[in-house]
Amino acid sequence: MTRERADAARNRARILAAAADLVAARGVEGLGMAEVAAASGVGVGTLYRRFGDQSGLLHALIDQSERAFQESFLSGPPPLGPGAPAAERVRAFLHALVDRTLAQLDLLLVAETAGPFARFGGAYDAYHRHLGVLIGQAWPAADAAFLADALLAPLAANLITHRHHDATRLKAGLDALLPPPG
Predict the structure, then answer these.
(1) Where's the DNA-binding part (predicted)?
(2) Which end of the chain, N or C, is more open, meaning fewer C-beta atoms within 10 Å of its C-beta?
(3) Alpha helical stretches, state H, the chain
(4) Span 32-65, pLDDT tens digits
(5) Torsion of CA 63, 159, 105, 132, to 10 degrees
(6) Which residues, including other chains, have CB under 8 Å from residue 161's CB and lie 6 or more apart?
(7) ∠ Cα 19 25 27 (to 5°)
(8) Cβ–Cβ contacts within 10 Å for residue 38, how many?
(9) What does 116-143 look like in DSSP terms, one character per residue?
(10) Which backbone phi and psi does 178 adopt, to 5 degrees?
(11) Under a CB-based contact definition with an 8 Å cutoff, are residues 171 and 95 in contact?
């Protein structure tokens, strides 16, 4: 793996910060490559070489948050990270995933609806594996793979957007889907 040059890393950080600010202010629809370049102090050509196009830039924004989220449930403090009982970790994971999804809902809506299976793969598979392991530990009689899909389904960005669900309702609904303790 090649290390990124220090100036390239600084440019990447400035670009992603500028893009995140623009998305926060104007939404995904208001994100233009020229505006991101101007706001981050780099040339438009640099932006296109680095990210390819607007879609690549959006995916980089998602990836940045995704890496931090995955780090938190793989090696962060309990109950989200290791060290807590499996049932507590499932609940903490789902609640954190609600917050993570809502924080980037507009970006995830674009990414997850880019094609018929765009939601699946990468992050979804990581979530599914993680939940499956924890569910198997917490509720050995449960069909862990099916329950993991059932718990992830309500967190599809298009469903959240369509139903206008908020964090409180999503978390309570997910909690209600979990098997009883013991």
Answers:
(1) 32-51
(2) N
(3) 6-26, 33-40, 44-51, 54-75, 86-103, 105-112, 122-138, 144-152, 157-163, 167-177
(4) 899 999 999 999 998 898 888 888 888 888 888 8
(5) -40
(6) 105, 109
(7) 75
(8) 14
(9) TTTTSSHHHHHHHHHHHHHHHHH-TTS-
(10) -75, 140
(11) yes
Tokens read off for 23 = 């998305």
Cα–Cα distance, 30 to 84 (Å, whole number): 42
Position 28 pLDDT exceeds 90: no
Query: Cα-flanking dihedrals φ and ψ of residue 77, to 5°?
Result: -70, 155
Residues composing the chain: 182
Domains, the chain, with CATH or none: 1-52 (1.10.10), 61-177 (1.10.357)
pTM: 0.82
